[in-house]
Every structure is written in structure tokens, then in C-alpha cells.
Amino acid sequence: MAQIRDVSRVSVRAGLMCGVAAALAALAPTALGGPDITHQSMHSASHYGPVGTVHGYAWGSQTCNLGDAPLAWINGGTPALAMNAYRLENGRLMQIGIGNAKHGCCVANGSGCGTCTAGPAGTLRPGCRDTYSSGFNGGQSRLGNRSGINPYEGTFTAIPGGTGNAIWRRVQIDESEMSLANHPNAIFIGEGLYVCAEEEPAQQLNNATHRVMSVARTGATPTYVWSLADVDKEGTAAIFAWRDHGLGLNQPDTSIVIQTVDVPGEGRYFIGGKATDLGNGTWMYDYAVYNLNSDRAGTTLSVPNPLGSVVTNIGFHSVDYHDDPYDNADWNSDVSNCTVTWASPEKYEDNPNTNALRWGTMYNFWFTSTSAPTTGSASMGLFKPGTPTSVSVGGLPVPGAPTCIADVDDGSGNGTPDGGATVDDLLYYIGIFGTGSGCADVDNGSGTGVRDGGVTIDDLLYYLTRFNAGC
Fold first, then answer.
1. What's the maximum distance between 2 C-alpha atoms anywhere in the chain?
2. Nearest by Cα to 81 from 53, 103, 111
């Protein structure tokens, strides 16, 4: 069985990289794809601090190589384990904690992942498992900036030096994010995500594992210690807990849709959506976007909102970065051209360290609309330069056409409906149709009011028909 190492039992092997590289060169990957790391289990949790009201955490790890070639294990380098924390409450999953990434140290090869094979020293061999305690993974000298890792390319920079307090570089969560008074119905989730230097893109997609955890938050002086609960969801990012536990622990919410979107030649995102009928003629639209391994990062999210729909209560949430150079300013939001759009505070060329959706993080977006949901697409802009500049994902709940498509303006020229179809609405629509505005897209030629992304004569004819009908 693989040895569980604590900070006091570290065995550092200097000069490992050259020997490992030579050994791996003699063991070329086969057609099965080479090394394939996965985070099998989060078998323990450690608590640190608090410092003020902020607590520090780390999760244990059992790591398997499911591939057919040895995986290099470099002291102070590859692989690296990023750790996160989430809260699921009242139908919304949010990331509430983030830590630096624990870099490799000294590998052991044990059973638990199949048939553990022979291979060179300094590697995690095929079918073998390596186990680290949460205390070892929380060792601050082994925690390095996420900004120093490109998860898709598998490149690493050295762990920076320095010292800090009890929560420095560890997963940090403020008590306000966990307290029973603030969050009485919350479910808490831990996550670990591996990055390594050798995996091909197809082998990177099973590197995240999550697990429901318990938090000691009762009594007059709660400790906020996290402990294990439920079971590990191996190879599955924490965003999927939103659907699996959306109506309560182990009570799935099947109304939640989670889609996969891959950036060509780069990383993967998961985008989830849910529409909730608020019972007063409005619907709440919730979206979560998780960046699994994209170095290019996300910079905008745009959701269609058709002509005649009214949007209110726009919201945004991102976890606060720490011990990395990134800003934590909220994204800006805007409702224009019949879309709801959120955007990072600055562009890459103006500030490479602005708040973008970086690897191993999840952001939330929400708003209320007067339109009932239909199925449509959202668009996400990419932060770092490259091609493409954005990606689209379909199959999400988005606002559909309003009940009265003809009601598009109250005479102000601002595109605000007022409950009736008058000549003001007709003039407003003809005006935006003439400019080719995306808001004029109201039909695809089927006469059913389904938008198709373009503005043609079909849209004008459909609008005139509905206006003549008084709706």
C-alpha cells in the first residue's frame, strides 16, 4: 500500500528530473495514450487558523495512473494539485474557497488502482496509486502560485519562496461563507484538480474529483473544521454537484443542464444553467461556468434576452484569489442589443492580472426576466489572445419570446414594453430593423417566433403579423 506522508516525513530527492526524463524516453507511450493521472479520493481534510475570521484548509489525495506509461514525479514540479471549496444552497452552487497548487515531492507506488506495474524510480507507474495526507498537501513550502502553471500545456514555474501566517497559500474561506446563521441549508463540497506535464489533452479531462463534506458550525464557538461525508466522485468536477444535490443531499435537480464546451486546440469548460419560475410572471436564470484546464481563461459571458423582455436583478459571484497576482474586482454587467452580458473589468492587453475566469475556478451569473425559458445558446469570450476569440454552447435554458412580442417600447425609444401594442411599438421596431440590430431578430421564417441569429424580411413580416393581431 502507498505510504501516507506527513510534513515531518518528507523525503526530498534532488536531481530527479534528468533521471526521470531518460527513463521515460526509453518507455514511449503506446496507442492507449501514455500516462493518465486521476484524483481517486479526497480521503482526509486539515484545518488551519483562523487568522481573523478566515480559515485555512487542505484535502488529502490518492492519485492513480490509469494510463499505460510511467508518469514523471518531479520534486517541486509536476504534477500539481489545486484545491477548492464550494457551497450549495437554495439551488445555487458557488465557489467559496481557493488555494495554491501543491507541487510534487516524492512518489510512492502502491496498490488500489488496478495492477501496479514495474517501472523506473521517480515515476507513478501504470496501475499504481500514490497517497498523501491532507497535512502533507497543506505544507506551505510545497504550495505554488496557480499563475505559474499552464494547465493545458503542462508547464510549471518554480515555487516562490517566502513565509506567511497559518492560512498562507492554503484554501481560504471566511466564516461568513460557512456560518449556520448565514447559510442554514448549505451543503459543502471539496475539490481537487491535478495538472501534470505529460498528459495529452484527452487524458487531462478526468483530473478533477469532488466530495461532499461536513462543517463543524454549531454551538457558541464553532470550529469550522471540515470532515469527510458522502463519497468521492472520481474524475468529476464539482460543478456536477449542482445537479446531483440541487434539491438537497443526494436529491438531483433534473432541471439543471450542464454542457461541455472545448476551445479548439486548448482547454475545456463546463457551463451549467437553470431557469426557475418565481410565480409572479418572472423567471430566475442561473448560470455557472467552470474552467477545467484552459489557460486562455474566460472574459465575457453573453446570454440572449429577446425583444420585449425586461431584465432585473443581475448578479455575479467569483471566488477571491489570494497569494496570486490576480485582481478580485467584480465583472461588469450590461443589457443591450437583446443580450445580457458580463465582462471582466479590463481586457488582457490593458491588465493581464484583471479578474478573468482562470483554470480551476467557477463563476456564477444570474438575472430575472419577464420571459419564460426556451432552449438556446450562450457565448463566452476568451481572455488571452488567440483563435477563436469566443466559444458558443447550446442546449441551455435562456429567455424565450415574450407573450406579447408586439409590445417593445413605451414611447421613450428605450425599448421598454408598457403592456400594450401601439404605434410607438411599431415605430420602434421598424427603426431597429432598419439598423440591422440583433434585437430585430424575432423569427426564423417558420412563423413560430424562434430566433435564428440573423435579421431578414422574415422578422419584419412576423412582427407586423403580431402587431396587427394586437400582440
1. 81
2. 103
